[in-house]
Amino acid sequence: MINDMFKILKIYTFIIWQVVAIATEDDFNVEKVKNTYLELKDKRFLLLPHKGNFLLPISYNHKARENSSRSVLLNEFPERGRYNKELETEFQISFSINIFSDILGSDYDFYLGYTHHSWWQVYNKNWSRPFRETNYNPEFFFRKVYSVKGDSNSIQLVLNDMGYQHQSNGQIQELSRSWDRIYIRQIYSWKRLLFTLNLWHRMSDDIDDNPDIQRYLGYGELSIDYRFKKAMAGIRIIPGDRYAGAELSYSYPLQDNIRFFTKAFYGYGNSLIDYNNKNRRLGIGFILTDPRTLDYSK
Fold first, then answer.
1. Per the confidence metrics, is the pTM higher than 0.70?
2. Domain boundaries in the chain?
3. Which listed residue (118, 166, 176, 223) is catalytic?
4. End-to-end distance of the chain based on CA atoms, in angstroms?
5. Per-residue DSSP letters for 207-268?
6. Active-site option among 50, 116, 152, 168
7. For this structure, is 152 an active site residue?
8. What does the pLDDT look like over 72-81, one tens digit per residue?
9. Which segment, 16-20, 28-32, 82-86, 181-185, is predicted with the most confidence on average?
10. Which CATH number is associated with domain 2-146+212-219+227-293?
């Protein structure tokens, strides 16, 4: 499995690298990114960008798996064809809100966050275009933003979060997937690179729909983003206890506040319903600009 994953990643990396290589490079100033974020944060109850807001009208999943819990419907209406088709639409809405600043005189602020990630069978007319899967992810966390130098050649800690999150797909019985975690999330910068490290500890649950989830999603994940003049390429690695998943992404500005966006995923942990099912996905669409991807040369 690991060898297959690296083969796919090598091919996709080569393609993306050829695309982004045409971009003219300049110095990526993480200090400007931080200052832009702080300006937004100081506006009380503003919806701040969190984990990315994107729409992939074309999202292809090689060998999408039918769920056995829907076999009754499939047997009753065989003329409708497959319930889960390979081609679908994927989108994510994610935001955070600064509720309190400088908690108890500290440098930490208190935030609420929410991420809504859906996989929509919009091209499956025969089954009335259902939502195949939606993952709901509310959280609260304490955040500290550190002072950084834009011209530094050393690795710098930019941001530190400590919090709690719940994630579920809102389904019942055999289709239900959920878990609760406490976590630490940190962002580091070095030259043109941004490193996002997530470490988590799963909280116990008397009713466990997915007791083996850590075999696939482990105890954390690592994202690495490389900033060009306008383009950004990244990789997200999910190292489970026994299995793994990886996602490659690339974005480039089309107009103000909207960017071309593509991402490819291979392995396990892409969604809760498919956490233990190997996915091979490729999506193409758009993503909204956030402070990391603003064009500061204007």
1. yes
2. 2-146+212-219+227-293
3. 166
4. 45
5. S-S-TTTHHHHTTEEEEEEEE-SS-EEEEEEEE-SS-EEEEEEEEEEEETTEEEEEEEEEES
6. 168
7. no
8. 566 666 667 7
9. 181-185
10. 2.40.230.10
